[in-house]
Amino acid sequence: MNSHLISFQLNTMPVSVETTPDARLIDVLREHFRLTGTKEGCGEGECGACMILLDDRPTLSCLVAIGAIDGKRVITIEGLRETPGFAILAQAFNDAGAVQCGYCTPGMIMIAYALLRDQRDPDESSIRRAMAGNLCRCTGYAMIVEAIRLAATRRGQSW
Ligand code: FES
Ligand code: FES
Fold it and tell me: What keywords would UniProt list here (predicted)?
């Protein structure tokens, strides 16, 4: 397949990359832009480690071809770090003991950010539903649910 110039917004910056349109978004983020906070677990849409926001919607970057994002907006965990919401979520994950090996954490924080953006005060079942596509081998999930509840109580009007 021939290379094309693909242009999109990445963490608020306009960017372009010359690549084949079927290249996976996760590979372009990690290898071309060196944004290695986005993790690859399964590579098959099953684990949530590669979660990013695509036009504000949680999206698995291992399943998205770069050709499909021309003109769209991508936010990775590095972009989220610039927001007040990230600091509150990171502290809540830390305080609740929700980070062990940390491999799932960027994807968990992306999904938590989107959930709390859309719901002011999600209950446990809403949190578990939102996280259903994000796997964690270490924590047993209870501490992650607790972290998201904690962030919901602390965030004020942050996001
Ligand atoms: S690496 Fe994308 S869902 Fe697992
Ligand atoms: S903290 Fe290790 S996979 Fe979740």
Answer: 2Fe-2S, Iron, Iron-sulfur, Metal-binding, Oxidoreductase
CATH of the domain at 26: 3.10.20.30
The reported pLDDT for the residue numbered 1 is 79
pLDDT of the residue at 156 = 85
Domain span holding position 133: 83-154
CATH of the domain at 133: 1.10.150.120
Is the shortest distance between the CB of 43 and ligand 1 below 6 Å? yes
Q: Are 115 and 64 in a shared domain?
A: no
Atom of ligand 2 nearest to the CA of 137: 3
Q: Who's near 16: CB < 8 A, 6+ residues apart?
A: 5, 6, 7
* Alpha-carbon 87 to chain mean position: 15
Going from the first residue of the chain to its last (159 residues), give the mean pLDDT of each consecutive group of 10, the final group possibly shorter.
94 97 98 98 98 98 98 98 94 97 98 96 96 95 97 89
Is the distance from the beta carbon of residue 95 to the nearest atom of ligand 1 less than 6 Å? no
In a domain, 27, yes or no: yes
Q: Ligand 1 centre and the CA of 156: distance in Å? A: 32
Q: What's the pLDDT at 157?
A: 79
- Rounded to whole angstroms, the Cα distance separating 32 from 126 reads 36
